[in-house]
Structure formats: C-alpha cells, structure tokens
Amino acid sequence: MKIKQIAFSFLVMFRLGFSLDYTYILCEGNFSSTNASLWQLAGTDQLTGPIHWNFPDNPLGDVGQNLRVYQDKLYIVMNNSNSLEVMDLADGVAYKRTVKLLHAGPRDIAFIDNHAYITCWYIKGILALNLDTYEIDDTVAINGLPENILANHGKLYVSIAMNSDWSSSDKVIILDSTAAKYQPVDTFTVIPGPNQLLLNDNKLYVLSTYYDTSWNSYTGTSRIDLQTGQVLTKVHGGATNFCEDIALINNKVYRTYNGGVAPLTDTLGIDSAKSIGNYSGIYSMAFNGTYLFLGLSDYTAPDQVVILDTLGNLINTLTVGVCPGSFAFYSSTNAIENELTNANQPGEFRLLPNYPNPFNNRTILTFYLKNENTVQLSIYNLTGELVAELGGERFTSGYHSIGWDGRDMNGLIVPTGMYLTQMKVQDTAQIRKMMFMK
Question: Residue 428 sits in a domain of what CATH number?
Fold first, then answer.
C-alpha cells in the first residue's frame, strides 16, 4: 500500500471516531395550517431549527405526516400539502427538491432499490416514485386506504386503515413484484384500524385503533407469523393510555403505553412493570438504538421532545414545534463511507465533507490533490462575504486536512449559521456547506 493510502486510512479512522449521529424531528403542525416544522439534533444536545422552512414566511406545509432517511437523503411526507420534500444529508442538511403529489393524500413512504413507494389515501393506492428521475413510474391500486408501509427483502407490507368507503378496515397486505410491478399477494385479518407496523424475527406486529358506534376509541396489537400465516390479536381496551408507536428496544418489542413505553409479552399483553418513562401528553415515540425519544404535545406550539436512556434516565429535554410526530436517524458515518466509495478515482482534486458537521468548537476540512498544486481554501457566509482564509499555499499530491475553529480573520467567533467552504485550484473551485453552532 502506498504511504499516502496508509495516511488516508488513518485519517478515515480519525474522522469515523468523530462522526456524529443526527436525529431529524418532524413536527406535524395543526391541521389546515402550514406550521409544520423540521428540526435537526446533533448528538443529544445540539438542536437546530426550524430547518430551511420557517413559518410563516417560508412554510414547510400543512400536516407533516412522516419522514424517512434513505441513501443520504431525508424524505418528508406532507399529507395535507400533497407533496414530498427532499433534503440532502451528505453535506450537512440542504434542501434538494419538492415533488408534487397532487390530490394524493400521502401518508407513509418506503424504499426498494431506486424507488420510493408512497401510500396515498385519496388515490386509494401506492405511488412508485423513480428516485433517478423523480417521476411516478407506477400506481398500485389498493382496495382501501393504505396507511403504514414497510419494505423488506423486496416485499412491501402495508396496513389498510380504512376501506374504500371510509369504513373501518381490518386488513394488512403483502405486495411482491412481478415483471417489475408490485401487486398484492397475501392478505391478513387483524384488529380493526391497523396503523403502525414493525417486522421482527419473521413476525409482523401491527398496532390498531378503532371506534364503537358512540366514537369511543379502543386500541389493540396484532402479530402475524409470516412463516405459518397465523395471526394473534390482543385488545387492550380504551385508547386513553396508548398512542400508535412501536419499536424494538434491546431485542424486545415495545409499544407506547401510559405516558411511556412498555414491552409486549409473548401473548401481546403489556408488561407494565418494565415500562420506561412517565409523561403526560405523549404523542410519538422512536428509538435510535441507544436513546428513546418521546414527543409530547398539547397541540399548541411550542411542544417538547424528551430523550431517555433505556433505564428511563432523562438525558435531555428539547423545545420544538407543535405535535412532534415523526423521527428519523442518520449517522455522518454514512456520508464518510460514500466518500470513500467515490474516492477511488477522485479526479484532479476533491473537497470532502468536513467533520463533525454541524460543529461548535472545531471541524476538520479534508481535500485530495492528484498532483502537487497551490490550494486556496476559503470560508464564506451565505451573503458571499469572506470569513476566513485557511489555504493559499502549495500542497503535495495526496490527502490533506486543515482545522477550523469557527473564528473569522479578526479572531472573533462567527455567528451560528450555515457557511461555505471553497477549495480553489487554479481556475476551478469546489464548494461544501457546513453548519456552525455556538
């Protein structure tokens, strides 16, 4: 191995050691308003937001329904605005595009290869969005209103919240592809009102909420054994102590219960003695593999998100927008791995993403030169003003790193915000975005 390749390997390990985990929080907003909002959390204490969209000048839209991360991009399903918003995460977080889904009523999204599959109430079907062209390739008709969707090993698992006449449904379907077109291949009967899905150990868990003739609400859990086809159901009773979120925590299936989360027993009962958390107004829940996130809401901004460890210890409390309903998780390690894949033939020169990003103390700027050359490395703010000069000297071929501590040319700490790193070699330049937070 060449010396510069060895040096780059050490650099990669260093950067991996300082990579950050990000949590994206989608606040649903109030129905028929446009006050949905997106927030970014770096680690457990560096909260930024709202991201890109700002109510009321530049609103995200009406009813932020769901969000998912796929291949270094964040996809935001906007239900009442009938759109899909796309953010690029590979170089900080930046708006990429809006995909209009007119009169579709989108609910949830899942991914297989280069396609996104979006459940939609108003068209009673699933849209297949080509992620290369951002065009709709296909519409899969569904006999009902599809709600939650999961993708696993080339199959799609979909809960049907209501029938086509808007009466309560009790069906979960599985779709498989034939000649590159997805079609329903199996149907299971579960507790009415199926919503959230979790697949674990070849078993599909389904959370349900349904109503009696007096509109009293009830909740239940179903489990479909995908090997035998058997369905186990458990009605929990009144829905006062429940909301519809489920997660795998330390290899046990937990669901929201009584202001926290509790594991399910083998017969789908609630093991309340092992419950985590005790909060009023629980609206949502997610688990990132280390920490539990609970969205709390009284339907009026601002609302809160609490972060707990698996023993129930409070890690942090965050103030966000109204109705924090969805969470998505992303590691900057993903971006590094993508850069490594692309670095085999990096061209004449290449400016890699800085890490950590966002940062509040020091960040590392890394670049590659195929041949020895003079490099001008400059930092600009979003108004185009020069903030700092870091390069301007001659570098040998290979990989190089320069640190920046967030200070301008006068030695003063710059304001919190987005900045641009420009690498210029002769008459050619590359630019990367980065976020500084005090």
Answer: 2.60.40.4070
Closest alpha carbon to 130 in 111, 151, 149: 111
pLDDT digits (tens, 9 = 90+) for 362-397: 888 888 888 899 999 999 988 888 999 987 788 888
The pTM of this model reads: 0.77
How far does the chain reach from its first CA to its final CA, in angstroms?
41
Q: Note the pLDDT of residue 18.
A: 45
Express each pLDDT in 120-156 by its tens digit: 999 999 999 999 999 999 999 999 999 999 999 899 9
What's the rounded Cα separation, in Å, for the pair 386 and 27? 35
Q: Higher pLDDT residue, 9 or 246?
A: 246
Alpha helices in 96-223, H assignment, sequence order: none
Instruction: Yes or no: say if 324 and 283 are a contact pair by the CB < 8 Å rule.
Output: yes
334 residue type, one letter: N
Compute the CA torsion angle 210, 225, 249, 289 (nearest 10 deg): -110
Q: What is the DSSP letter of 355?
A: B
Task: Say how far apart CA 42 and CA 51 lie, in whole Å.
Answer: 13
Write phi, then psi, for 241 (nearest 5 degrees).
-95, 10
Q: What is the CA radius of gyration of the chain?
A: 24
Same structural domain, 202 and 55: yes
Q: Are residues 279 and 356 in the same domain?
A: no
Q: Which amino acid is at 326?
A: S
Residue ranges in 71-143 assigned as alpha helix (H): none
Regarding whether 169 and 49 lie in a shared domain, the answer is: yes
Q: Which domain holds residue 355?
A: 347-436
